[in-house]
């Protein structure tokens, strides 16, 4: 599940809602032209799996700048075991044997997790967000 904004835009029998939480493992996504141009301007080289780059606010991605949205029910289903065959395994191994790298990584990750957690807490308390399990239709 993930935290989605309560405001929505109707699209036939689906809605489009703002996504406010981590959502890696995305099976399909669309970038607007403006969003794609932003990514190309901001990053000469992307060293993360694309779903982490787009949808992981913890990894310093472009999640907040792009204002990511989710179609509900989802359009595409991804099998749960696909991560074992994805490019995320290689990115997790970079620097894992270096204690300084690992300490820095966990410290920075903790800092990045604080802000989204506070934002989500406030959003849920004010009724602007709610936790939902996605279905695929």
Helix/sheet category:
alpha+beta
Share of helical residues: 25-40%
User: What strand order characterises the main sheet?
Assistant: 3-2-1-4
Rounded mean pLDDT is: 78
N- and C-termini, Cα separation: 16 Å
H/E element order: EEHHHEHHE
SS field, number of helical segments: 5
The beta-strand count equals 4
Q: What is the overall shape?
A: globular
Beta-strand proportion: 15-25%
**Largest sheet descriptor:** 4 strands, antiparallel
Taking pLDDT < 50 over at least 5 consecutive residues as the criterion, the unreliable ranges are: none
Compute the gyration radius: what is it?
16 Å
Features:
137 residues; alpha+beta; 4-stranded antiparallel sheet; 5 helices; 39% helix; 18% strand
Q: How does this structure look, described?
A:
With 137 residues, this protein is of the alpha+beta class. It has 5 helices and 4 strands. The chain has helices at residues 33-42, 50-55, 63-66, 88-93, 99-125; strands at residues 2-11, 14-19, 69-72, 129-132. It has a 4-stranded antiparallel beta sheet. A hairpin with a 2-residue loop joins β1 (2-11) and β2 (14-19).
Quick synopsis:
With 137 residues, the protein is an alpha+beta fold. It has five helices and four strands; from the N terminus they run E-E-H-H-H-E-H-H-E. The model has no long low-confidence stretch (mean pLDDT 78).
């Amino acid at each position: 599940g993930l935290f989605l904004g309560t405001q929505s835009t109707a699209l036939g029998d689906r809605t489009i809602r703002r996504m406010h939480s981590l959502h890696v493992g995305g099976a399909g996504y669309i970038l607007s032209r403006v969003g794609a141009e932003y990514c190309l301007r901001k990053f000469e080289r992307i060293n993360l799996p694309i779903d982490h780059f787009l949808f992981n606010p913890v990894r310093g991605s472009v999640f907040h700048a792009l204002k990511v949205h989710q179609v509900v029910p989802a359009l595409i289903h991804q099998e749960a075991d696909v991560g074992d065959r994805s490019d995320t395994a290689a990115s997790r191994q970079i620097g894992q044997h270096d204690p300084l790298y690992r300490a820095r990584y966990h410290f920075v990750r903790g800092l990045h997790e604080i802000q989204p957690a506070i934002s989500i807490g406030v959003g849920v308390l004010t009724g602007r967000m709610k936790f939902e399990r996605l279905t695929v239709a």
